[in-house]
């Protein structure tokens, strides 16, 4: 026996072929329970360990998946990452997390991991700025190994896991209308993101459905940060007429806005009602607890991994592969919405 136990040593001790050892270690469902037990007993007895580097080189696979986020400090991404990690771990994949800071050059560097073999696929939680031609398709399926999560895609046919952002925003704004609000402002998401336009369209459509107009200055720029929400709150207080309700394109901006209103002595929801989007953990424990749109973020992560494995040809990819997976959203009613002030 060599200094380092080999798969041949395991096979001899277990009384099976090396191919059976490989199946027992990598595809246990394809061998009998008795065979699997003998192989694993032999592995423990001689101290055999997998040579991951050699396996990766032989298969030309990194067994690693890249996750690119635009801002690692944004709490929205935590649950998505948890879902990705859980599903990827179960599939024997490693996760690499990269913060692009919404910088095209950094995004290009991270996505070069797909070319140099450091990662087999990439999940993008940011609006992609990369040249799609630089991402080669997977030979087994002919699909590019990139899955968008929540975000919009620049190219049609890009695999995507999302919710209907436009309809969700329409529901959120209609909720304010149903409470009697007629002067409703909107804090938009950042330019350069695919989420800005559908959430804005949903807001506008809900106003049109109710026969309401948008007053000048009532559509305020934001960047998904609490700081931009605070700036929006200060700007709203100077408007005439002052809105009685605000739909924010995400929860962090809603939190910043409510904080700015509180510092100015304006109460939520007694003076101004606020609705957010995403249902991050802070939305439920903030004072007042924020009415918002729930995105099933953990489910998005797990569904995205399942989609990626099929794209990579590791889970029975076929012609029925659905490139767009739209998950259900929900309006979560809490304490930040009430009737307009008399």
Tell me about this structure.
By secondary structure, the protein is an alpha/beta fold. It has 13 helices and 12 strands. It folds into 3 domains: 44 residues, Orthogonal Bundle (434 Repressor (Amino-terminal Domain)); 117 residues, 3-Layer(aba) Sandwich (Rossmann fold), CATH 3.40.50.2300; 130 residues, Rossmann fold. Helix 1 packs across helix 2, helix 1 crosses helix 3 and helix 2 crosses helix 3. 42% of the residues are buried. It has a 6-stranded parallel β-sheet, with helices on both faces. A 4-stranded parallel β-sheet has the order 7-6-8-9. A two-stranded antiparallel ribbon has the order 10-12.
Characteristics:
342 residues; alpha/beta; 434 Repressor (Amino-terminal Domain); Rossmann fold; six-stranded parallel beta sheet; four-stranded parallel beta sheet; 13 helices; 40% helix
Can you give me a brief rundown of this structure?
By secondary structure, the protein is an alpha/beta fold.
Helical residue percent? Answer: 40-55%
How confident overall, as mean pLDDT? 88
Give a short account of the largest sheet: 6 strands, parallel
CATH architecture of the largest domain: 3-Layer(aba) Sandwich
What is the molecular shape?
Answer: elongated
**CATH class group of the largest domain:** Alpha Beta
Distance N to C terminus: 87 Å
Number of helices: 13
Low-confidence stretches: 52-59
Secondary-structure element sequence? HHHHEHEHHEEEHEHEHEHEHEHEE
Instruction: Please identify the structural class as seen in this structure.
Output: alpha/beta
Rg, rounded, reads: 25 Å
At the fourth level of CATH, the homologous superfamily of the largest domain is Response regulator
**Count of distinct strands:** 12
Note the quaternary state here.
single chain
Predict the CATH topology of the largest domain: Rossmann fold
- Strand content bin: 5-15%
